[in-house]
Amino acid sequence: LYESHNLLLEDDLICDNVARSATSSTSSPGYGGGVYVRNSDGQIRSSTFCRNTASTSEGKYSTGFGGGLFTSGSDLTVRESAFITNTASLYYQGYGGGAYFSWYSHLGFLTNTVRANVSTRLAGNGYGGGVSLGKTVAHLQGNQILSNTAAGAAGSGQGGGIHISYSDGFTATLVSNTISYNTASAGGEGYGGGLRVYYSGPIFLRHNLIQGNAASGSGQGWGGGAAISYQSNVEMAGDTVRGNVAQNGNGGGVYVYRSALAMQEAELAANSAYTKGGGIYIYHADASLDVARSLILSNTVSMEGGGVWSSSDTRLVNTVVGRNQAGSRGAGVYLSGQADLLHATVADNTGPEGVYVAGSAYLTNTIVSGHGIGVHNAGTATMDGVLWHGNTTDISGTVTVTHAYLGDPAFVNAAAGDYHIAAESAAIDLGVTSAVTDDLDGESRPFGTGPDLGADESHILIALWPDYDVELTPGGSITYVHTLRNNTPTTDTYALTLDSSRGWATLLTSSPITVGGRSTATIQVRAVVPVTAAYGLADTALLTAASQTSPTIFASVADRTTAGVSGTVRLEPDRAGVAPAGGTAFYTHTLHNDTNAAQTFAFTASSSQGYAVAVASHPAAVPAGGSATVTVTVQVPAGAISGTVDTTVITATGAVTGSAAVTDTTRIVSPSCAPPEGAALSGPVTTTTGTPVTLTAAVTPSTATLPITYTWQATGQTPLVHSGGLSDTAAFTWTVSGAQVVTVTTANGCGVVTATHVITVESPPTPCTPPESAALTAPATATVGASVVLTASVAPPT
Fold this sequence. Notes:
By secondary structure, this protein is mostly beta strands. Among the domains are: 7-274; 462-563, Immunoglobulin-like (Sandwich), CATH 2.60.40; 567-669, Immunoglobulin-like (Sandwich). Helices cover 0% and strands 56% of the residues. It contains no helices and 85 strands. The strands form twelve sheets. It has a 37-stranded parallel beta sheet that branches. A seven-stranded parallel beta sheet has the order 3-8-13-17-21-25-29, with no helix packed on it. A seven-stranded parallel beta sheet has the order 4-9-14-18-22-26-30, with no helix packed on it.
């Protein structure tokens, strides 16, 4: 399309075309495999460009430009279209596998999908697997640039997703694009897996996602996410550069050479490189790096500079460098040029040191926490305002340090990458005066009497800490100690309230409480777990301190108290029995869960002879304070020798707490021996002291092998042992009253059976002789009104 005005391509399908074929002149390039636009203006909307090729020639000069679309000197808007599996060149070199825009064009590229395109597919060098820009003013917004490749084989590849070159003075703006899973070179040297910029600028990136790109599949890679070089000028704001790889090279996230990169509110995370700069690599005296209000987290490198490697002028302001990793030097930051770190948080980087200085570095108002060595100086290092915490060694080499402090920075959630400081942080108000007037989040600083150390400035007016979560044995108590901080400059009075969900907690500190400006006070809460509390039952006590001057200013903490385990576990009794070779012994036990926790018990069995043992009750769920019957089976092998004794230990282990064990002893007997299976013990249930009592024991079955040994045991009596037939008697006389227990154990060579009888012994009554006769004597006559005496007598006199 030449010299076209008001061009409109809409809802078109442009596929399977070739601009320059192998049969064409081998010295000519191919332009626009799908569409060629020159010196035109207009729009392309809702169209699809697929499987087009700009050049299939193998000749030395058979360069392909724009596999799907080529423009030159045009003012064009492309929106809501798709560029899929197009190829700029099969062999020699290609620019823009999906599309190429050049020569003083003006481009709007909006909400398009550019996927699986290749600049050079089979051989040669490739530039811009998805899109390539040259001398073009461009605005790219809301596009999906996915899975494109600049060089598909072993050639050099630059810009797997987007390639911008020789565009000095031509502004390109990239806004809210997704540039993911692109590759600069599949097998050769690669620059910029996601984005490649050289001899270009200004380039503005805003809120783009650059993720999962690779500079090279197997060759040497530079800039897994982006590569910027040769007098380029790039500004990034709000971009995320995550999970990119610089295979065998430098700059896992971003590679900068002889160019200027300014970055703010960006996140560089989980990128990796082999040699230098897991997050950012910048090299040369002509280069500069300015990072503000950004996160450089969890990047890795095999050698130097886990987060940042720089030999250039570098400035890090309100930036967190955390959880990065390096194999040799500078796990967080490696600095060999001129560097200024203002309000930086350098924390939890893995490697020899958090900051390695080989040039000249000035660190102002810094937190350095969680390293083997905090700062190592092999050049010139000056620090003014620093909080040291958790370093094995704070300083290695000679470092000039003023205004240094030791204390916990109290990061909100360092494990999750949240390096904001909590109200209890030791970094608050300890910084020196600097020109920095905001923090990591753009909030003003200083907020208090001085700026806070590190990237974050705390704006909390009131703070109450810590929360507690404690387990206590029922009946136990604990006193929780909290700190209330008034972060305002004036004294205030706070009302204290405590809401205990189960009533276990009480407030020990009187309310209200007065706290001076920028000062702290202690508040105590006592919790008591009831003796009867079931395991796992919890009380949550919410403590709130509210300003009486301004009730909307308040803070709360929660004290969670959980009832732990109390009590023991019993498994009883021990058992003994016999079994023939090839037979089975059965035992029953009772498991008592005398704890306050309902729990499931698992059983293990250990046989001294290695016999097979089964516990039928495994596993057993037993309520708190409850019991369960446990049945054990011991299988005696057929070849077991008579007289062998096996000891099996059964152990019950609770899922919450406690264990107990019993022992089952099994003696192996000859199969011809018939053991007693039952025993009955009979006799009176009452008697009197001094009166002999005879009891009878009888054994069943009648086929039990004789002789039977009877072992008699009675309360307060000497044991008796008899040997005889299927029954036996024993007599006992008690001299004391009360319930008496008689036990008889019957046994032969192959079995044992026990029986028990209870008899109540009473004291005898006092002896009594009855009267046999009675006589009554009296006068025969008497007068009226006179007294008469009669006499009665009983016989016999005894």
